[in-house]
Amino acid sequence: MTKRKVDRPGAEPEAKRGGAARAVGAIVPDVGRASFRRFGFVQSSVVSRWPEIVGDRYAGVSTPESIRFPHGKRAEGVLTLVVDGAHAPMMQHVAPAIVERVNRFFGYQAVARVAFRQAAAAPPPPAPRRAPPSLRPVPVELGDSLRAIGDPELRACLASLAGALAASTGVPMIEAKDVE
Fold first, then answer.
1. Residue 62 burial class via C-beta count within 10 angstroms: exposed 0-12, middle 13-18, buried 19 and up
2. Bridge-partner residues for 116, per DSSP?
3. Looking at the chain, which residues constitute the CATH 3.30.300 domain(s)?
4. H helix runs in the chain, sequence order
5. Could you list the pLDDT tens digit for every one of the 180 residues in the chain?
6. Strand 62-68 to strand 77-83: parallel, antiparallel, or no bridges (unpaired)?
7. Contact between 81 and 116 (Cβ < 8 Å)
8. Angstrom distance (rounded) from CA 56 to CA 101
9. Dist. CA 96–CA 113, nearest whole Å
10. pTM, whole model, 2 decimals?
11. Three-state SS for 12?
12. Residue 74's pLDDT is what?
């Protein structure tokens, strides 16, 4: 190990900077810790693991906002949740279960009660993207006849009709209607 140049006599040499590269995901908890503590979260994992704590059903309509503890204590706090307006009455009924689940997550009586604030809790998950009809492949069992059709809407209608006919059993029945 080589010693670095020392500016002052008797001072320790500077430690070498650098080291192995770290993933950004490994650094985020360290960066967010100060801001989470500012809002009353002892552990930032309460926010990041909210769906695991309360389940997907309740996590979809609520988001933890803060945990406020009595002065000088780290127990019997008030958990404030942001809840979508229409779901607030349901969440009030399951508040004891939420308190129990959060306390089980912490491992001690961290939360004594839950307070609710009605607002948009979380943006809805984006709808899965579907390929337009022109980009969907034509099933092999329908043959090459549909691949030659250029209009995507007509091709989709004919593919749907062919699929329905292939799924049916027996001869198609056409009902005669009275035409006046």
1. buried
2. 81
3. 29-118
4. 24-38, 45-48, 50-54, 56-59, 88-93, 95-106, 152-167
5. 555 555 566 666 666 666 677 666 566 665 555 555 555 555 567 888 888 999 988 888 898 888 888 888 888 889 999 998 888 889 999 999 999 999 999 899 989 999 999 887 656 566 677 655 555 565 666 666 777 777 778 877 787 777 777 677 766 666 666 555
6. antiparallel
7. yes
8. 13
9. 8
10. 0.48
11. coil
12. 83
Topology of the domain comprising 29-118:
GMP Synthetase; Chain A, domain 3 (3.30.300)
Distance CA 63, CA 156 (A): 42
Q: Six-digit token pair at 148? A: 């030659």
Residue whose tokens read 């209608």: 157
For residue 153, the tally of other CB atoms under 10 A from its CB is: 10
